[in-house]
Amino acid sequence: MPVYNPPLRDMQFVMHEVLNVCDDFRAMPVHAEVDADTINAVLEEAGKFASQVVFPLNISGDTEGCQLDQATHEVKTPTGFKAAYKQYVEAGWAALSCDPAFGGQGLPLVVNQCLYEMLNSANQAWTMYPGLTHGAYASLHTHGTDEQKATYLHKMSSGEWTGTMCLTEPHCGTDLGLMRTKAEPQPDGTYKITGNKIFISAGEHDMAENIVHLVLARLPDAPPGIKGVSLFIVPKYHVNKDGTLGERNGIYCAGLEHKMGIHGNATAQIVLEGAIGTMVGQPNKGMQGMFVMMNAARLGVGNQSLGLTEVAYQNALAYAKDRIQMRSLSGAKSKNQPADPIIVHPDVRKMLLTAKAYAEGGRALAVFCSVLLEKVHHHPDEKVRKDSDDMLSLLTPIVKAFLTDNAWTATTLCQQVFGGHGYIKEWGMEQYVRDARINMIYEGTNTIQSLDLLGRKVLGNNGATLKKFGKLVTALVMEEGVNEKMAEFINPLAVLGEQINKFTMELGFKGLQNPDEVGAAAVDYLRVAGHLVFGYFWARMAQTALREIANGNTDPFYAAKLQTARFYFAKLFPETATLMRTARAGSKVLMDTELALA
Amino acid sequence: MPVYNPPLRDMQFVMHEVLNVCDDFRAMPVHAEVDADTINAVLEEAGKFASQVVFPLNISGDTEGCQLDQATHEVKTPTGFKAAYKQYVEAGWAALSCDPAFGGQGLPLVVNQCLYEMLNSANQAWTMYPGLTHGAYASLHTHGTDEQKATYLHKMSSGEWTGTMCLTEPHCGTDLGLMRTKAEPQPDGTYKITGNKIFISAGEHDMAENIVHLVLARLPDAPPGIKGVSLFIVPKYHVNKDGTLGERNGIYCAGLEHKMGIHGNATAQIVLEGAIGTMVGQPNKGMQGMFVMMNAARLGVGNQSLGLTEVAYQNALAYAKDRIQMRSLSGAKSKNQPADPIIVHPDVRKMLLTAKAYAEGGRALAVFCSVLLEKVHHHPDEKVRKDSDDMLSLLTPIVKAFLTDNAWTATTLCQQVFGGHGYIKEWGMEQYVRDARINMIYEGTNTIQSLDLLGRKVLGNNGATLKKFGKLVTALVMEEGVNEKMAEFINPLAVLGEQINKFTMELGFKGLQNPDEVGAAAVDYLRVAGHLVFGYFWARMAQTALREIANGNTDPFYAAKLQTARFYFAKLFPETATLMRTARAGSKVLMDTELALA
């Protein structure tokens, strides 16, 4: 019953009118030839695949879930998942932005970003099977040996094999230093790995012929803690020299979790019983390779929530126009009907616009990040590579936490638009809420993201990277400060841009005296930073829309964009007022609570 | 695996130390003899029943759900539900606060309030079966004929028969004026009723021998809209003159909804095929009787969310003390363990304290409301009855919407404390979130509550009732304004008390010019009012705690209460800063969005 229309027009707007991504690509030899038409044409096809093949499996996949055969340890995915994945592989979607050296199509990452936004809108649970492969691919591409790359990357680019990341154990999630899984060196240079992993997304399934697990484990002589963790490739099936599949490796699915959502994805308990693996990177430096994957996954999780926000919005909008109930407070609007469509009610519009503003702001940020990542890999200028890496490091926890918190709000509000029907499975809205929930938790909880942002990315370099983002804001303010039509967007942004510097310095100072001050303020801080970033992109989108209108462009898309920008600055952005106040309320009221929390 | 300890100490604190409910009862002849010991003793037993009998069925009830036999139209509730209900009836819990004239025990409503908070903590889905009966009972008690009362109220007091409210139809929820179900008068004074109802909670089940449906329907000559709706009793089984059960009536369950949560409760599609009913109250005045039930239900829904907030808090607290992961930012706290319990982290404490502050503030408000309702029914002074009724009318939408929104936040945060384990069904936390979700929707969505509050309860009488609440605030400010120890609680409350008057006047003025201004501000306004009310009760609780400490009472309960009060005012109350700002941003940015919402 739900609908999904790929937001191609908005993607084109962000890519080609606001951010001019092809200008950036022209500076990179590998992408110098990429043009907007190519990108748009690929995404149009991608949208068809997402909406026509993957989307119809979303509710059925949730209802059916995954089944583990305890005897064979094999997992059966929901009906239709395997066939859709076969189409995905055959059409080459897996290889879109992969390295041509390993069979990839070499398109810019922004294409993959937009493909995955649409796949996530269509079906988050299904999309996690191919989605996790990209992180494992990136980790091996960066840290693997030539032999490892030759053995695995072609098959991962094609999607014939999928990847996982095996970090978590029952007693350790956030705190990977507590890890117990052991890797014993073998005479042939391989390792025999033994231990228990949990929460392994796409950890076992029937969609690909092999699964390439990237597993964290400890060497016998490893130092304690996170500095004694190494990374290993542990394939489900060994790979023969000629590339064919060999024996089954000693890595099994021992159970599947019963979860709140993403039922179509197999969240596996993985047992390693002397499984044979090869090391990726250096001994005890496993987190280096894992962080490549984890950073990709964090951006990917933000993208999951972007997708859910968009699809929830589209469905709530359709329902709000269709459902008639009560009259407008300002007088009947549909006099030929017994009641007005509920979209006439201000609060219904507020709920819809919240989701819309979060989706479109999130899309601009996500596309921006994909271009940064492209520059990190492919820009000829080392300084640009370094600056892009810094900026992406700053924005990654914001993408992960701000987009996923926003999606929780947005999917909940879109469900609310449906009234009682929103609580009923058949309408599909409650699934978006359940699926969105995990995104705030996995790949580092949103509290962890906030500590990463404030503690490491901001205070860790005395606000240097934040100031770089601040320079973008200042440049825009300078550029548009005298444009009266931009005042409603520029003024609040300029104010926050100034406030956040003082706010950051304050927190840095307090944090030096008492580190708990950082922990107490971090979650509020991340949302303030998120609004600075969203405010910047919303102002740029408004700037582009105003420019087009001034140039006589009558496409209503631009006037619509201005309406959403106005809503964003009037109704969502002011959240920063409370956030700065509560952050400043400090840690004492949290920490002096031994009796209250007894 | 989850735990639940009835919060008897906090209930006693609120009832006997803060609100001194027995002083109020002494002024009412029917309750003049009730003392604290009696109330406490009953609640201690109630807590055992809730935690030992009903709580263990919560997760299993969610997993198993209800089954409809399509051939017989009978519903099988989850294993154990029926047996627990039998114990409930036999122990007399149903009759606790019912009228002795109909077999009730005649205890004050506050006892029932606290019983139901505990039952809701234990198992919301189970508790809805007996819970809805109270509203139907109250409606019949107020509007039924003597014959109707004699026929139904004894069995409903005892719990042998349960009640429902049948309002919603597929095309009408909020807008009951669109209702189509028809009632044709019969020569014997009864009515033959035909139509389709949906979303009927506890609409069919195997726990009681009869179900007393209160059904809204239209007479053949009814005027259109809400002024043409009448109320009828339609029992599942007819009742013979001697009180025994007769023939099966023509009212059937045609289907059960598949829902996000409250799986243990049967949400029935009800078909009436010439079902025979008798009218309650006057023709076309059905909403009068229904509103008795609906107001009871709205307080009841707030109480459901209070219960969920409390139990989610208790479990998150236990987990946060038990789970070790990472070190405190301010240095290791449990040096003999490989990591610290996660409760050392400021943001974990913030999540826990948010739930605690919402639970305890909600408890004070809910108890206060139950005393108001008692006064409405039993106070000898007419003015007190009238004032109490006004105040309760004002507070009812706040209880419904503020407590349920808070519970959504609180259960989500408590789930977050569990990290990945929070997403797994076995831990029980995700169920609290799913169950809490319906409370924001049913019995009038929270948007409807906000319009009821701002449009009808506040602006509808030019702020007169709000000013009455303001007088309570002012009295407290006057009483404690010079007490330095109370300053941290009184000062923010005093400021908001002044701000809200100006804020309300502004909205009233804007609303006169454009009614959509009311609709645009209402949801924000309700949360501001909610914080005024919570701020008042938190200040009163702090006042009591400070008094006890000053008197030399060394029970750590009081110091704990002060810690939570400080947290509330420092971290939650400041939300009002943003809310007033966004409300003031007005309706234009919502309504001038035809293109954005195209």
Automatic annotation (TrEMBL), chains A, B:
Domain (Acyl-CoA dehydrogenase/oxidase C-terminal): residue spans on this chain: 284-451
InterPro entries: Acyl-CoA_dh-like_C_dom, Acyl-CoA_Oxase/DH_mid-dom, Acyl-CoA_Oxase/DH_mid-dom_sf, AcylCo_DH-like_C, AcylCo_DH/oxidase_C, AcylCoA_DH/ox_N, AcylCoA_DH/ox_N_sf, AcylCoA_DH/oxidase_NM_dom_sf
Cofactor: FAD
Gene3D superfamilies per record: Acyl-CoA dehydrogenase/oxidase, N-terminal domain, Butyryl-CoA Dehydrogenase, subunit A, domain 2, Butyryl-CoA Dehydrogenase, subunit A, domain 3
Pfam families given in the database record: Acyl-CoA_dh_1, Acyl-CoA_dh_C, Acyl-CoA_dh_M, Acyl-CoA_dh_N
Every Acyl-CoA dehydrogenase/oxidase N-terminal domain range: 78-160
Alphabetic keyword roster: FAD, Flavoprotein, Oxidoreductase
UniProt KW Flavoprotein keyword: yes
This protein's record includes keyword Cell cycle: no
Acyl-CoA oxidase/dehydrogenase middle domain boundaries: 165-273
Domain Acetyl-CoA dehydrogenase-like C-terminal: 478-593
SUPFAM superfamilies linked: Acyl-CoA dehydrogenase C-terminal domain-like (SSF47203), Acyl-CoA dehydrogenase NM domain-like (SSF56645)
Superkingdom of the source species: Bacteria
Protein family per UniProt: Belongs to the acyl-CoA dehydrogenase family.
Name of the protein described by the UniProt record: Acyl-CoA dehydrogenase C-terminal domain-containing protein
Lineage per the UniProt record: Bacteria, Pseudomonadati, Pseudomonadota, Betaproteobacteria, Burkholderiales
